[in-house]
Amino acid sequence: MAEDLGKIAESLIAGKVEDVDKMTKESLDAGVSAEEVLNKGLIAGMDVVGQRFKAGDMFIPEVLRSAKAMSAGMEHLRPALAESDTKQAGTLVIGTVEGDLHDIGKNLVGMMFEGAGFKVVNLGIDLKPQVFVDAVKEHKPQLLGMSALLTTTMPKMGETINALKEAGVRDQVKIMVGGAPVTEEYAKEIGADLYGANAASSVDKGKAALGL
Amino acid sequence: MEKMNQTIQKTPVFRVLTDQQIEKIYYSALEVLERCGANVFQDEAIELFKNSDAVVRENRVRVPVSLVERALKTYPNKITLKGRNGKRSVALQKDHVYFGTGSDLPFTYDRETGERRRTLYKDIVNAARFVDYLPNYDFFMSHGIVGDAPNPLTYDRHQFMAMLEGCTKPMVVTSVDGEGLEDLWKMACLFQGGEEEFRLNPMFVAYIEPISPLTNDRTAVEKLLFAAEKGIPAMYTPCPSSGATAPATIPGMLVQSLAETLLAVVLCYLKKPGMPLIMGGVTTVMDMRTTTYSYGSPELSLASAANTDISKWLGLLMFSTGGCTDSKTVDEQAAAESTLSVLNAFLSGANLVHDVGYIDSGVNASLESLVMNEEIIGMVRQIGKGINTDPEYLALQLIDEAGPGGEYVTKDHTYEHWREWYFPKLQDRSDWETWCNNGKKTMLDRVKEETHRILDEYEPEPIDDGIRKELKKIIDDAEKRHSK
Ligand code: B1M
Q1: Is B484 in the A-facing interface, judged by CB distances under 8 Å?
Q2: Which of A122, B51, B192, B411 has its CA 20 to 30 A from that of B233?
Q3: In sequence order, which residues have a C-beta less than 8 Å from that of residue B249 and are 6 or more positions away?
């Protein structure tokens, strides 16, 4: 069986989405525990992808393929993992704040989190604080991400945090903010928990903050 | 005696696309507009399209070729811009190249701390002064965004005021929305002698962008329609990043951004035929290691030059990009990247080359970068002078006179012609000892000194007190409207 899980890892590294999808399901059907498939298959593969990306041997289009494969595999594993109480990456809700239409960076961050095993709810762009509040209530994410690319829309991130406080759900999530004009200091100033400078480091910080 | 059948090339000739390649791209863009179309999220625009031959399904607009071609015939081939000092100094027409800054950089390099910080009103006044002072800059965009304006919905008025304070040259302006553009236009009209005069002597071009791929948001369209109505020159400039918001192949990116441009061409035509629309495009790649929208890539230069070829073929004026870098600071990388894009944009014959001086991939502002690019543009313009092969320049007589083993330094011919060369201001061509005695300064040292000197010394022509009052009134009124 370990050999098969190695194949899942290999396929994931190679970005073969359909193969990973199929093999994950087959392993589960064959009775391998979800936890084992996750750790020895998907995560083992994604660890290599992460290392290669950092070393400059893999690039964004390849990493995102692998992330997609990870996400496809996770679809099968999530129910079983929940049942067995296995520690797993949770949910990220992410969106671009009100008045801001930039979405490339935010989407990339979302995809990279999928690569780390998160379930990602991408709310879109130009979102009023209330939309974030509602989404936190509905999806109960571990992590809430806000993106702003304009100095003129950055304050909306603070407003959203205040709205979460008012709605009494601020403490249920870790909040990460990012975008070109956003800085670590600014994140602190508005009471966010985490600042993400780029997609890859955001995932590292997010995982660390959640103890993953 | 003059030779028959001669062709003289007065300046370098540079093209990256043949007519046949352009046709392929153009026909493909037409296909995109008929087959896929674009999303338009603005009511008036949707109405205009509905009342035309376009096919509208909810917000998706598809446009037949005939309508595109009718619209294309209506655009002016020449637009002359006049600065606030009354000089008609920028005459946009085919193959006439003008250089200027970019806009809205959230950060500014702080020369006291060596760190970056938020851009403030005073930084924009300073950038304006530099562009006013440095002769190789023809037009001004704000360089930075005013971080200390009272309200995000009215910052554009303050930004324009800062621009006017420091610079008398023609401008390209960004605005929050249609209402913002209207205020900026009113402010400009104060200098130009009213709305009608502005139409003949516009002081600025409005910078407007679609969202690649093929999306037109409400505020962008609102601005475009306002510009069309009032005859304000405007560019609708796609900013696709190849591999992220456009195909990873340059021709694919060009097809898509041309389709985006043509949609605006049709929309403006439907609103008001003949409005002064300028084609644009910041066409670059997303760096696949860092995700950065690259301002220093060779692909930016290549795709931009191709876009300029297309614009000339279509008979549209072109807004292009150069003099910018991904480097975080003014260094070797900044110099190399800026030079490459300035040279390519210049040779391509683009009309307004913007973003000169951008560092940190369009996030950070630096006066030093403006000063360094002044030198780069100077060198590049020299290449543009080309080679003159008239007898005076072939200098046969002179070569004969000097003879084998002779000299030229003392000749009248030299005395008369050497000034045609480019004379660098900041580049060092001295000998080693002189260089050592002068403190072993690097280019960057000299750039910094020159930056300090201009900052300390240069005073732009002030704004007339009467006009200043009226400008202030427009800004105050906007603040009042938005404080409610
Ligand atoms: C949740 O946690 C996290 C964690 C990390 C997070 C995160 C969230 N979000 C981002 N990150 C981080 O990880 C990502 C991946 O590595 C990174 O995301 P980024 O988004 O930074 O990176 C992307 C992968 C690539 N980068 C980008 O895609 C942005 C590139 C630049 C050039 C840019 C683009 C492309 C666009 N723009 Co705009 N744009 C600029 C940008 C300059 C720049 N270098 O940032 C910037 C941001 N824009 C600016 C401006 C002025 C504007 N733009 C506008 C529009 C657009 C386009 C539509 C043309 C297009 C966006 C298309 C799209 N679908 O997103 C207008 C505003 C529209 C609106 N209301 O939002 C308009 C106002 C222009 C106008 N006057 O019309 C400037 C900001 C000015 C300011 N106020 O601060 C600007 C810095 C460029 C400039 N110098 O003018 C990190 O930041």
Answers
A1: no
A2: B51
A3: B242
Q: At what angle do helices B367-384 and B443-457 cross, to 10 degrees?
A: 110
B297-331 residue pLDDT tens? 999 999 999 999 999 999 999 999 999 999 999 99
**Looking at the structure, do residues B86 and B53 belong to the same domain, yes or no?**
no
3 state DSSP class of B211: strand
- Domain range for residue B53? 19-72
Contact call for residues A202 and A112 (beta carbons, < 8 A): yes
Give the residues of chain A that fall short of pLDDT 70: 1-3
DSSP assignment of B50-64: HTTT-EEETTEEE--
* B451 assigned to some structural domain: no
Q: How far apart are CA B371 and CA B133, in angstroms?
A: 10
Report ipTM (2 d.p.).
0.94
Does the pLDDT at position B234 exceed 80?
yes
- Give whole-number Cα distances, B93 to B220, B315, B350, in Å: 25, 10, 9
A99 contacts chain B (CB < 8 A):
yes
Integer Cα distance of A136 and B449 in angstroms: 54
Do B258 and B375 fall within a single domain? yes
Give the residues across from B128 on adjacent strands.
none
> What pLDDT digit, counting tens, does each position of B125-149 carry?
999 999 999 999 999 999 999 999 9
Residue contact A151–B241, C-beta within 8 A: no
- One domain for residues B55 and B109: no
**Rounded to an integer, what distance in angstroms lies between the CA atom of residue B8 and that of residue A107?**
53
Helix axes B155-166, B465-483, angle to 10 degrees: 170
Shortest CA distance from A197: residue in chain B:
B290
Distance CA B218, CA B224 (A): 10
Q: At what angle do helices B250-271 and B19-35 cross, to 10 degrees?
A: 60
Same domain, B212 and B114: yes
Is B3 a residue whose pLDDT tops 90? no
- One-letter identity of residue B158: H
**CATH classification at residue B230:** 3.20.20.480
Residue B352 lies in a domain: yes
pTM above 0.90, yes or no: yes
Yes or no: say if B133 and B454 are a contact pair by the CB < 8 Å rule: yes
Question: Within this chain, do residues B305 and B359 fall inside the same structural domain, yes or no?
Answer: yes
Q: Distance between CA A194 and CA A116 in Å, rounded?
A: 17
A residues 40..79 contacting B (CB < 8 A): 56, 59-61
CA dihedral B146, A149, B207, B274 (to 10 degrees): -150
Is any ligand 1 atom within 6 A of the Cβ of residue A110?
no
The pairing of strands B98-99 and B90-92 is unpaired
